[in-house]
Amino acid sequence: MKAVVLRGAGDVRLEEVPDPVLQAETDAIVRVDAAAICGADLFPLHGLTPGFEYGTILGHEFAGIVTEVGSAVTSVSVGQRVVNMSLVADGTCAACRAGRVTQCSGRALFGYSGVYPRLDGAQADFVRVPHADTVLYPLPDSVSDEAAVFLADNLPTAYDAIVRGEVTRDDLVCVVGLGAVGLMAVMVAHDVGATVFATDGVEQRRGLAASLGAQVFESDEVGEAVSGATDGLGADVVVEAAGTPGALGVALQLARGRGIVSVVGAHFEPDYPLNNALMFERELTLRFSIGDSLAHREHLISMISEGRLDPAAVVTHRMALDDAVEAYRLFDSREATKVVMTP
Ligand SMILES: [Zn+2]
Asked: How far, in Å, is the centroid of ligand 1 from the Cα of 73?
């Protein structure tokens, strides 16, 4: 089959590889009908993911049809249309049983071998899915493949940013970083009824955020805008969805006293010069979330089915898997905000 393989930093290729096979009785094989590129795929592409195992097939967001199941799989069957959760959880360990699925002791991430145990991703014709009963979820006809890929990661992550940011309709929420997760956070905060400010350096992304109900600002304007709208107090909640130390610094400066900075950008830097004086003086809460698809996907599917959320609105590029190398170039250069590929 064809698959997108990361061979080294900056070296992404479309290769012919063996089809995946069942390795455990809890596995399933899925024929991929749509696979997206996530901002998190850029960290190993840039060589910024410590321990990443090159030779891994990339991709942790997909929708498709189950073609094979192991003998112990009971909740999905062959022929069923499904979406995955990006972070694989066993569903049985102490953390999973306590509802902390993102902290599963056996966790893995599709296409992130080395950081977690070896597991190939889904930017391919087929993908092997471990713990299929937990990881896969059947899709209703009301959710298109293009909308479904957001359920794997981006949308539940953004939803977690808003839930763990304790956002209410009376809040002013400022979203820093308008990749797909930031745009989804705008969508969810808008649904809650909050006032949403948003900032990003890329004009196309600001345009998308504005179309989703946010007041948008360039990076050098947002501080003044938040201050002006809040009598100098600051934002009730700041969502950091960029995943850079600089964006985190901006987010901390934008929050009001006793405000919450809800971080869903992926961070891999081990050291960060946290301004403890600012944290103490303003009594800030700083909270990180990986994004819990298992907890939120059922609710999010109803929201999509009811027309309250339309994640596919942020897809800027629809491409064939055959054009994956070009797709990565467009995404890495930020010409593309979200790419969905079709094998
Ligand atoms: Zn577990």
From this structure: 17
Residue 232, burial from CB neighbour count under 10 angstroms (0-12, 13-18, 19+): exposed
Q: What values do phi and psi take at 294, rounded to 5?
A: -60, -40
Q: 107 alpha carbon to ligand 1 midpoint, in Å? A: 7
CA of 134 to the centre of ligand 1 (A): 10
- Do residues 188 and 162 touch, judged by C-beta distance below 8 A? yes
Nearest-angstrom CA–CA distance, 169 and 147: 25
Q: For 35-63, what is each residue's pLDDT tens digit?
A: 999 988 999 999 988 899 999 999 999 99
Of 91, 111, 106, nearest to 32 (Cα)?
111
- Measured in angstroms, how far is the CA atom of residue 293 from the centroid of ligand 1? 14
Q: Which domains does the chain possess?
A: 2-153+292-342 (3.90.180.10), 155-288 (3.40.50.720)
Q: What is the pLDDT of residues 155-169, one digit of tens each?
A: 999 999 999 999 999
What amino acid occupies position 46?
A: H
Output the pLDDT for position 50.
85
Helix, strand, coil % in the chain, rounded to nearest 5: 35, 25, 40
**Nearest residue to 239 via CA among 274, 277, 209:** 209
User: If you compute the radius of gyration of the chain from its CA atoms, what whole number of angstroms results?
Assistant: 20
Q: Given this model, what pLDDT does residue 252 score?
A: 98
Enter the pTM of the model.
Answer: 0.94
